[in-house]
Amino acid sequence: MELETRYEAEPGSVRPGGRTARVRAAVLRAAEDVLAEQGFAHLDLADVARRAAVGKTTVYRRWGTVANLVADLLADMAEQSVPRTETGSLLGDLTANARLVQRTLTDPRQVALFKAVIAAATWDTRTAQALRRFYDIRVNEWAPCVQQAIDRTEIPPDTDPREVIRAVSAPLYYRLLISGEVLDQAAADRAAAAAVAGARAGVYRRDGDRGSA
């Protein structure tokens, strides 16, 4: 799915080439640095411009607000994420998805960045919207793996693919943000296996269909 079909035109959302693309890349990298190092509260457009060696006027004209800058950063992250893996089985595909999430959430830079954005999303509406867009894009990227499993008759035909994908990452984010338990590959593999077992049992059938299993 192309991002432009999901992302309305806003400051910083245009995808031009040439020098403008280089400026955008430098600014987004600087914004990512600040978020990872200091958190959302310290994100300032003037400081980002300085770090990116870009004129303040350019940054203010293009993004306008910190919230718009974070939204563009999340959109870029979604576009740059590793594409889904197709192994020929639902367990193989979801295990690949879970391990990708696990690697991301245990990378020191990435985990600091995600924690900063998630924390900001609890009180900043614009950031919360951008974060939802980010995860919608990633869920939509992986949902076809579940549809392929439906087509192979591995799981019930009325299974909701998006719910299955969400079920894979939810326990991993719980470990990261709530329990503080070790987030290792074994945890990722268990999350994938549990999602597959649930899908096969009809747990993720669309609303109104679960009782007919």
UniProtKB/TrEMBL annotation:
Keyword field: DNA-binding, Transcription, Transcription regulation
Lineage: Bacteria, Bacillati, Actinomycetota, Actinomycetes, Micromonosporales
Protein origin, superkingdom: Bacteria
Domain HTH tetR-type, residue spans: 21-81
Source species: Micromonospora deserti
DNA-binding region: 44-63
Gene3D superfamilies found in the cross-reference section: Homeodomain-like, Tetracycline Repressor, domain 2
PANTHER family associated with the record: HTH-TYPE TRANSCRIPTIONAL REGULATOR RUTR (PTHR30055), TETR-FAMILY TRANSCRIPTIONAL REGULATOR (PTHR30055:SF148)
Descriptive protein name: TetR family transcriptional regulator
GO molecular function (one): DNA-binding transcription factor activity
SUPFAM superfamilies, sorted: Homeodomain-like (SSF46689), Tetracyclin repressor-like, C-terminal domain (SSF48498)
